[in-house]
Amino acid sequence: MANSEIKILIFGLNGEHYATNIKEVERILGYQEPTVLPDAPTFVKGVINYEQSILPIISLSRKFNFGQDKESENRKIIVVKRKENKFGIIVENVYEVKDVNSDLVEEAPQITTTIDKKYIAGLIKLEDNIVILLDLEEILSSEDEDNIF
Fold first, then answer.
1. What are the phi and psi torsion angles at 73 (to 5°)?
2. DSSP state letter for 143
């Protein structure tokens, strides 16, 4: 069974299409402005109340050095499951959930310098787009986790 399929969630960030394995996603929330925390790492936008607990909200735009998050009426927060911890990431738009043949996922080339290559699980060729498949497990380093959770 060489050509298996993976289910991905495609979303927008910095005007580009990104994706993650749907297994890493717990829920997609409408955007709500996080409460800002003093002395938080620069990529932590703040926290929100989520299911009677505090959910840290990460700005991937800041984490990837894209600058500030783009204001958009379509912004969403994707709740990411990571071991026993959860965190939210801000995205500009959520496009679709799609089954993709794993043969379409290629390793990212060395020229991928805008985002640290450890965050990228691969590149997916879909119709006219190239979608960057993120490995959300790698978004937060253990040092980042110590600062956030």
1. -70, -10
2. H
